[in-house]
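ARCHIVE RECORD
Type: protein–small molecule complex
Small molecule: iron/sulfur cluster
Source of inputs: curated submission
Record status: active
Notes field left blank by submitter.
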Amino acid sequence: MSTPPAMLHPELLAHDDPDAITRDGQRLDHAEAASKPLQSRPEPQPRGAKVYGNRPIDQAEAAARFIAAPEHEKMHDERLWDLRQKRDREMHGIAEWEELRSLASAIKEHTLSHLDQYLEQFEDNARSHGVHVHWARDAAEHNQIVHGILSDHGAKSLIKSKSMLTEECGFRPYMASVGIEVIETDLGERIQQLDNEDPSHVVVPAVHKLRTDVAEVFSRTIGTDPANSDVHYLAEAQREATRPLILKADAGMTGCNFAVAETGTFVVCTNEGNADLSANVPKLHIASIGIEKIIPRFEHLAVFVRLLSRSALGSPMTQYTSHFRGPRAGGEMHVVLVDNGRSERLGLEEFWTSLKCIRCGACMNTCPVYRRSGGLSYGATYSGPIGLIIDPTFNAHKYSNLPFASTLNGSCSNVCPVKINIHEQIYAWRRELVKRHEVPFAKQAAMKAAGELLSHPAAYRAAITAADTALAHLPRFVIYNGLNAWGRHREVPHPPKETFHSWYQANRGGKQ
Ligand code: SF4
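STRUCTURE (tokenized, with ligand):
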């Protein structure tokens, strides 16, 4: 392993850590974030996008606040890029990686094209193992079904493992409104719950927080020492605070990574074993499953399990890959199959393949916009590139700005383990939003003018010459002012003395 470069954020680097786990004199990768309290004065954590009812989310405004917090921005960017690099190393270790991606994509497309059959097959097989199967049309129905099951058992507290579907359904606020206590068992998700924030990433929910932020949250909520940001201390304190709640909970809830039609079983992948606690400590287990999580056969699991953790965290496997088949002895198991807009998305010609997503987060880790703006700047359940194409299917007006938070560089599509053409769908959403009159007139007019200019070479060259002259002579305030959003965070490059075109004309006379 090569030595990490010196410019790494201190949270990612602890060369002098006497407790570091080493092999052959080198730090192990997973020890890179080992504990050393930061010496500097903590920088306040930038918060996410402001949400005002149905008003379009201003992602750029929230991103600007994130960028204005340099400690957070640097740590976030580097931590996610580190995951991307680890993913690349794992990918290069598997000769058949591209074949796996194609296979995963084909399995998902086949399943989505026969979804009704596979869902019914799953339901029949699950019922045959004594599982109660429920169908939820939308988020409200999901929450009511779960509430009904809990009420039938007189349950007042619920431990749950991380599930983006329950985030999508607004499950925790709903449960709070009916007086049922929900305790998240995933450490990152628990941090976010205690801080009253949504997860900022589908795999690492608190990745935008510095250790000092976590120390502040824990000191406020579970009474730890606010000056101690040692990760071992913080994790141990959380374990001590949460274990008693887990042991006395009335019910447990998990999400699902894959549900297998031919066996009626489902699989949950975690690194903390917390899904196993949620499913096995209380006698009542409820699993919320998005209908797109179905795969036809048990053997298909091998394809997805090999891709998932490598794409997500650059590790060969999740620590726990837990299979659930039926209720434990003396217990009860319920599965809620949730649509919540998925059937409608399946009918969208340009966007249906977004349902192939296995929520690995690789597209987020590689995205330059996401890495530098933080997941909460999107103001939606799903952030990063996959969020740009899923969120508008829920509400095209509210999330109308999101598809513009991309450079369309295509890196997201390149890393996606199920080969979703993410950047093309982002572009397609831009077209769709213009058609639906969801793009401000000024932006539409600017795009139209740019399109005209770029399709007329003579006019384009004249404009470039004029712009070069203007840039060289105009006072700074004329170029960098409130009207120039692009220039708020960037310097316009110095114009070259001559363009390639004029050099070519002068030196080659336009001839080959
Ligand atoms: S779109 Fe692809 S890369 Fe992004 S989270 Fe989903 S599966 Fe992973």
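CURATOR ANNOTATION: The pocket of iron/sulfur cluster is lined by residues 357-363, 386, 415-418, 420, 422 (CB under 6 Å).
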